[in-house]
Amino acid sequence: MTTKQVLVIDDETAVRKIICDNLKLCGLDVASAGDGAAGLALIDPARQPGLVITDIIMPGISGLDVITAIRQQFPAIRLIAISGGGKVKATDDLLERAAALGADAVLAKPLDLDLLEETVFKLLG
Amino acid sequence: MWREGLPLAMSENDRESKLRAAREDAQHYQSRLESILDNIVDGLVTIDEFGRIQSFNKACEKMFGYTASEAIGQNIKMLMPTPYAENHDQYLQNYRETGREKIIGIGREVEARRKDGTVFPIDLAVAELQIGDQRLFSGIIRDITEKKKSEQFVGLLAAIVQSSEDAIISKSLDGVITSWNAGAEKLFGYAAEEVIGRHISMIIPEDRLPEEDSIIRQLRQGKRVDHYDTVRRRKDGADIRVSLTVSPIFDPSGRIIGASKMARDLTERLLQDERMRQTQKMEAVGQLTSGVAHDFNNLLTVVLGNTRLIRKRMKIEPPAPVFADIAERIDDIDVAAQRGADLVRRLMVFTRQRPLQKTVVNLNTCIDEAAGLLTRAVSERVQLKTVFGADVWPVIIDQDQFVNGLINLAVNARDAMQGGGIFCVETRNVVLGNGQYPEVPLPAGEYVLITVSDTGAGMPAEVRQRIFEPFFTTKPAGEGTGLGLSMVYGLIQQSSGHIEVDSEVGGGTAFRIYLPAHRAETQP
Q1: ipTM, 2 dp
Q2: Does residue B369 sit in helix, strand or coil?
Q3: Which of A45, A82, B258, B414 has the most CB within a 10 Å radius?
Q4: Inter-residue contact B447 to B514 (CB < 8 Å)
C-alpha cells in the first residue's frame, strides 16, 4: 500500500538535496537515492512511496528504466520525471518518452519548485 | 585458240609434236595459274551469268568451309546470308536484261555465310569477264572480321571518351587542341568546332600559363601529370576548380606526339565538402551546447531552489535587522539565475532539446498577425514590406517560435540598415526536385519558401559562414547573445525545413527558409 512518502532519485547531489529540502519544508516525508538502482532498492513493496520523482539521465539504470520498472511492479505509485535536456541523442525528446512510458507529469530543469510543489500535492491527492 | 594458230600445211609428225608441245605449254601454264590462284591470300570465285560457281580457290575453301568440289556447280547464293541470297537471282537477271550494274567494278563491304551457317563480313570486288562466248563474273573476297572488330573497338573507345562526364581533350605538343569531347563542351562551355585547332591557352587563366609550360616539359620527358588541382577558364569567363590528369600520347614508333588531358570539375565536390563540414560543425556545436545546457539546468535548479528555500525560511523566521537587505540580494540572485535559465532555454531550441508546440499554420496569416511586432522590431527608420504568395500551403511549425525567429531576423536587419531601408518578408509555394532549386538539400516535394531580405550592409563570407553557430555574434559584447540565428536554425531543422543565406557586403542579405507543405491530399 502507498504512503505519503516521496522518493527523489537524482545523481546530482546538490539537485537532490534542494528538491528534498524544499519538499521537507512543505511537511512531506522524503527519501532519496543517487541512482536508479539504489532508488528501486529503496521501495518497500509493503510500504510503497506515494510518489517517485526521478531524473532521466543518470549513470547505470536511467530514469526511463526506473519509470518502466515502477509501472510494471508498482502501478499505484505516481511518477514525476524531471530532466535538464540530454546528451543522449539530439533528436530524442526525453520528457516526451518519459510521458509515453507512463510518467504522470514531466518537468523541465531548471525546476520551477513552485510548480513541482503544486504537482506533488496534486498527485498525492 | 592455239588450234587456229597452227599452220595447216604441216607434216603429221610435225603437227603431232607441235600440238604436244603446245598442250604441254598450256598445261604448264594452267598449273602455274592454278598454283598462283590457290596461293593468294584473298578468296577468288568465278560464277557464270546464272550464278553457278565455276571456280573456287583454296583461300575460299578455308574461308567458307566448302571444298572446291562441293562448291563448283552450286549457286553462289549458298555463300550469302539473307537478304543478299534472296536478292541475288533478281539482281543477276536485271543485269542480264538491262546491263545496269550495281557492284561490278567496285569493291564493297558485304556479309558472307560459311558452310556452318555463321556470317562474317567481307570486302568483295566483282569484275566481269568474257571468255569466248561465255560471260563470267569473278569475285575477290577478303575476310575483314578482324578489321571490323578493331574498327568497332575504336568506335567503342571513341563513344566512351565522348560520353565521359570528365572533360577529355587531346592536344599536340605545341598546345594545339586536336580533340574535345562532350564532357569538355559541358565543363568549359565551348563546342568542339570552336576550339579544335586553337591553342590550349584559351582555357587557361593568364596567371596559370607558366603551369602549362611546366606540364609540357614533363610530357616531353614522357611523364604523366596526375590529379593536378588547378583553375581553368570557361567560355563565359568564369574560373573553375578542376583536377587535371595529363598523359603523353605516343605514336607506334614510341615518339611523343601530343598529350591527352582529363579535367574533372571540382566545384560541385568542393561545395559538397563545404556543406558537409558545416553540418558536422553544427552537429558538434550542438552536442557540446546540449551537454552544457544539461549541466547548467542542474546548476540553475540548485541556485533557484536555494533562493526559494531561503525565502520560505525567512517567512517562517524573519532575519535579524542586520540582514535586512537579504531579500533584495535573493531577488538579484533570482533575476540573474532566471536570465541564465532563459539563455539555456534558447540554446536548447538550437540543440533540438526543447519540445515545440507544433500546429498547422497558414504562414500568410501568421506573418500578417506578426506585422505589428515586426514593425516595432525594425524601428521607424526601416519600412516593413510583406509579399504574400497566393494560396500558400499550410505548414507545421511552432508558431510562437517562428514569430520569435522572424523578430530575430528583423532586429538583425534593423542593425544592418543604420541609414534606413526595407525589410521584406515574402512567401510562396515551391516544388523541389524538378531541378529548379538544385542547391537545396531537402527531399523532393512541396514546400513553402519564406524569403526574408533587407537592403542593409550585408556581410562578408567569413561572417556569413558562421552566423548560425551558437554564441557567434558581430555585436559589441553585452548587446547580442549570439543565439538568435542559431535558434532560428534549430527551429527550422526541427521542422524538417532548411534555411540558407545569401549576402554580399553592401548588397543586403536574404534568408531563404523552406518548410514542408502540409496538405491533406499529399498525406498518404
Answers
A1: 0.85
A2: helix
A3: A82
A4: yes
